[in-house]
Amino acid sequence: MRRLVVALALIVSAVAWTPAISEAKPEVDWTCNGSTSCDRWFTSDVFLDWTVAGGSPTSGCQDTWIRYDTAGSLQGCIATDGTSTVNWTVTIKRDQTPPAIGGAVPARPPDHGGWYTHPVTFAIQGSDATSGLDGCDAPSYSGPDNASASVVATCRDRAGNSSSRPFPLSYDATAPDTSAATLTTGDKVVRLRWPAGSTASLARTPGTGGTTSEELYEGSGTSFTDRYVRNGKRYRYVLTLTDQAGNSASRELSGVPRRKLLAPAKRASLGGPPLLTWTPVRGARYYNVQIFRKGHKILSAWPRKAELRLERKWRFHGKRRRLKPALYRWYVWPGLGARKEHRYGRLIGRRSFRIDPVRATAR
Questions:
Q1: 3-state DSSP call for residue 358?
Q2: Does residue 143 contact residue 151 with C-beta atoms inside 8 Å?
Q3: What's the distance, CA 326 to chain centroid?
Q4: What does the pLDDT look like over 329-339, one tens digit per residue?
Q5: Is the pTM of this model over 0.85?
Q6: pLDDT tier at 361 (50, 70, 90 boundaries)?
Q7: CATH assignment of 182-255, given 3.60.15.10, 2.60.40.4070, 3.40.50.360, 2.60.40.10?
């Protein structure tokens, strides 16, 4: 009995230490464009290369090019060594087409007449048919001013392709410049001018007909002449310029209409003959200009326009005269009716100028 137990133990021990026999199988390897990793998106043609060792392919396993966009092309290889068979599959994803950009939607409508006057952000509408859209930028515009401005939309897909597309807009955040507006006065007249390119409105205080204020003008012009004024009274004007984007700016100008001498300036020091100018007078057909030196009249002239250019030499009352260094006083009267009638209006003004000896010699 004891011998039987020992024999059985020896048999069990022999079975427990018998080494296992491994079964050899075919080995299948593959590469995509020379890389061992095919599990990614490709943005160009893909060359799939199969390698079978220790067996023979029975289905698939052909080296191939994937030259078309695909969200997943299943490629396979079945190989056998006569005893064992292996089956491998690889999914190739190729996307060479950039995303499509459909539109740019502003966060708000234009501020005025199709123009933006404050910064604006756009939401971009994009799509991608193969790898799917990864995202789009949200561009914004805040300047510079430009009637033909644009924002550039950019979208990317999951394969890494990107595309851009401009979208136009008109932008102007700058109010019109009123600094170049001018006001000049004359005999019962006020003239205003301003830069072109804007719609202008002009209001005056006081208004006409005893009103406190009145709007005199609105339009696209660049000037206005106010003839409903009285000499010696101050008038205030508010000029408002509005551009096509809706930006506006205002400026106040004021003046007192009257007859007056304009140039040269009071007590001017000159080196040569001046051009005398004054405000035109309503109804004047000519003017009488008189020049005095040391209390003696040395010139009397009758120009038709509101200006007179003096000469270096002239004749007056049969005597030769010359514009030499000295102090000169000049006076202007408006001539009414025919000159032979010798009818003159009220004195327009009086002034003086000096011919400087140093400046006259330098010339």
A1: helix
A2: no
A3: 57
A4: 999 999 999 99
A5: no
A6: low
A7: 2.60.40.10
